[in-house]
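Re: the multi-chain job from yesterday

Posting the exact lines I submitted so nobody has to dig through the queue logs.
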Amino acid sequence: GQNIDQPTEMTATEGAIVQINCTYQTSGFNGLFWYQQHAGEAPTFLSYNVLDGLEEKGRFSSFLSRSKGYSYLLLKELQMKDSASYLCASMDSNYQLIWGAGTKLIIKP
Amino acid sequence: ETGVTQTPRHLVMGMTNKKSLKCEQHLGHNAMYWYKQSAKKPLELMFVYNFKEQTENNSVPSRFSPECPNSSHLFLHLHTLQPEDSALYLCASSPPGMGLAGGGEQFFGPGTRLTVL
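And the result, structure tokens for all chains:
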């Protein structure tokens, strides 16, 4: 079966660094996506990885290990506005996104 | 603003009502999607349209009926829903890209919060 696992909730402190992990098992693989979703709003695209390694984009970085079926999203210099849910999604062989349930990130001052 | 709009934003309906959700995108995308989002559950893909043709129907009950009159508009017609259908319904679109289903980065609308009484 197809499965995406990520923690349900995480808490971090403003200014700190947090890493949100995601493991995936899908029928085929065409890349790993991370989305951010603030409460009551639409999910918005953060990153896409299809090759192994780290992709850095400002305060956010995303890592992929295809052999391990593993990805993480790294958020640096946390700000209060980073409080949101972070959704991990793997694209399968049919180019459909298989979604995790999301990780709710709570930032404390 | 993602370029994808949905109306209404909130909807309360009884189990015998008929209502429709509307989605519109002017991003020039060819693929459009309906998702159901329930609390603490993964996004559930319901339907996919690519160039106005339905390419996916993920075992969705017939009380949900999609319609895609053109590549910019997508509807979800609702009738005789159940309380367990209460959820956030998200529409998304994606540009031409990977595979027949469009794939790639998806742009989401703000969703319709549906409550079935």
